[in-house]
Design goal:
single chain, globular, 61% helix, mainly alpha, 174 residues, binds zinc ion
């Protein structure tokens, strides 16, 4: 998936943030960062690994790693009496898993690594064009990505208008 990770993360995070007005800003910010967090491994892929291993094969693209990291973080927050921040761990984990789910559409993700090397890839995109990314841009799955982008843009516009309406309704500070 190319362009839909962050918009999809925004849609998921604003849904989770509903009914939590005091934490909605932190929830949406955490969710947006975590919606693209696995792809931070591209820096390692290009700068260190020299593009030798597909970045979807790094541990940063394995769900069990993120489940373990979230469990450790949740335990640390609980033991330190900061249970009110557990929602941020939940929204972060949900967004990372959404990222891996969306990656599983057109790329192979090892959902059970290191227990199993089963690769989940819903749609096989054929190599018809060069450079390689044109195969994905001309594939129908990219239309699904654009649909997510447009939905998030509409939602963000509505949120922004609502936020501006609330700010305008606030009494002026003298
Ligand atoms: Zn990814």
């Amino acid at each position: 998936m190319f362009v839909a990770h962050l918009p999809a993360g925004y849609l998921l995070s604003r849904f989770i943030a509903r009914g939590r007005p005091t934490q909605s800003g932190a929830i949406i910010a955490t969710g947006i960062v975590c919606s693209v967090l696995p792809d931070f491994d591209l820096a390692y892929f290009y700068l260190v690994d020299g593009r030798r291993t597909a970045h979807h094969d790094y541990w940063t693209h394995t769900p069990l790693f993120w489940l373990a990291a979230a469990a450790a973080l949740a335990l640390a927050l609980t033991l330190s009496g900061r249970r009110n921040q557990l929602i941020l761990v939940s929204v972060g984990l949900a967004n990372v898993l959404l990222h891996l789910l969306l990656d599983s559409v057109a790329a192979d993700i090892r959902w059970f690594h290191p227990l199993s090397d089963l690769r989940v890839n819903l749609v096989h995109v054929q190599a018809l064009y060069k450079p390689w990314y044109l195969n994905f841009l001309f594939h129908w799955t990219f239309m699904a990505e654009l649909l997510i982008v447009v939905s998030a843009a509409v939602a963000a516009t509505l949120d922004w208008r609502r936020w501006r309406g609330r700010v305008a309704a606030l009494p002026a500070v003298k």
